[in-house]
Specification:
This is Sulfotransferase. The protein contains 14 helices and four strands. It is of the alpha/beta class and about 290 residues long. The chain has a four-stranded parallel beta sheet with strand order 2-1-3-4, with helices on both faces. It is globular and about 50 Å long. Mean pLDDT is about 85; it is low at about 70-75 and about 80-90. The chain binds adenosine-3'-5'-diphosphate (A3P). Adenosine-3'-5'-diphosphate binds near residues 41 and 132.
Length: about 290
């Protein structure tokens, strides 16, 4: 491994030595007909959550029973370092999986195994506005003992702004993937759009996957992937999976599922400080977010 890469990995993982299985991740062999769903944490990708659920339903032509049968411990293998999902070494699962495979990752773009670029594998990236991600990440960190302790919300916001959280800087993550999207088949989606107009976003996914589904099936997918329905489904939010590592009395994966919850958490001064820093970090990019809806 090049020294610079080790440095980057350690910065993203926060802890030295967690990158033990890094070589095998870096050398992972993607295939042209794989699909990768990528996001920064808490943007409605990970877990068995939203985007995965939508893609799963699309791939099963809206047949919920088939999707539920497909619920396994690692339905869509997570290309990550082992410590994240503890006993779910996504790599081994991914290698065993029949094609076409759907996998997910929180890897920042510069650490994605090169075979994905070489094989021109399709990637769906989901981004969510920074303040809502920070709030969601804070609550998950409180409830999930494998994550670094968040401290107070004020302390956590500070760590988030400085990229001192697991998976590193949100700013670099969303910008890095954004910059890659015109050079590679990447469908870049926004949580806020999915909330506002799920049909339109599902249609984008269908087009990207070169699939055609009837209006009736699309409506069924919208219904089954709505927050309320997914929250009722014990298999859809890590609630059953992470029973021992997430304290549900504190928070859960399917927490609120809304846009703008940051307003219930950030003080005016926290928000101003965040905005000022945000402007500097996001200067010069064409990537914009809606955090006011
Ligand atoms: P909140 O903590 O704000 O509620 P991830 O899956 O990447 O960990 O992201 C989790 C966030 O996505 C949580 O946000 C969760 O509630 C939200 N989410 C999951 N499924 C959702 C859905 N069907 N509709 C809206 N939000 C959803």
């Amino acid at each position: 491994l090049q020294e610079v890469q080790v440095k980057e990995i350690n910065a993203v993982l926060l802890t030295k030595g967690m990158s033990d299985n890094w070589e095998s991740i870096w050398n992972f062999q993607a295939k042209p007909n794989d699909l990768l769903i990528a996001s920064y944490p808490k943007s409605a990708l990970s877990g068995t959550t939203w985007t995965q659920e939508i893609v799963d339903m699309i791939q099963n032509d809206g047949d919920v029973r088939k999707c539920q049968r497909a619920y396994t411990y690692v339905r869509q293998p997570h290309l990550e370092w082992k410590p994240w999902l503890l006993s779910t070494p996504g790599l081994e699962e991914a290698e065993k999986m029949p094609s076409p495979r759907t996998m997910k990752t929180h890897l920042p773009v510069q650490l994605l195994p090169p075979s994905f670029w070489k094989e021109n594998t399709k990637i769906i990236y989901v981004a969510r506005n920074a303040k809502d991600v920070a709030v969601s990440y804070y609550h998950l960190s409180r409830a999930m003992s494998v994550l670094p302790r968040p401290g107070t919300l004020d302390e956590f916001i500070d760590k988030f702004m400085n990229g001192r959280v697991l998976w590193g800087s949100w700013y670099d993550h969303v910008k890095g993937w954004w910059n890659k999207k015109d050079k590679h088949p990447i469908l870049y989606l926004f949580y806020e759009d999915m909330k506002e107009n799920p049909k339109q976003e599902i249609q984008k996914i269908l087009k990207f996957l070169e699939k055609d589904l009837s209006e009736e099936i699309i409506n069924k997918i919208i219904y089954h992937t709505s927050f309320d329905i997914m929250k009722q489904n014990p298999m859809a939010g890590y609630d059953t999976i992470h029973i021992n590592i997430i304290d549900h009395s504190i928070s859960s994966f399917m927490r609120k599922g809304i846009t703008g919850d940051w307003k219930n958490h950030f003080t005016v001064s926290q928000s101003e400080k965040f905005d000022e820093h945000y402007k500097k970090k996001m200067a010069g990019t064409t990537l914009t977010f809606r955090s006011e809806i």
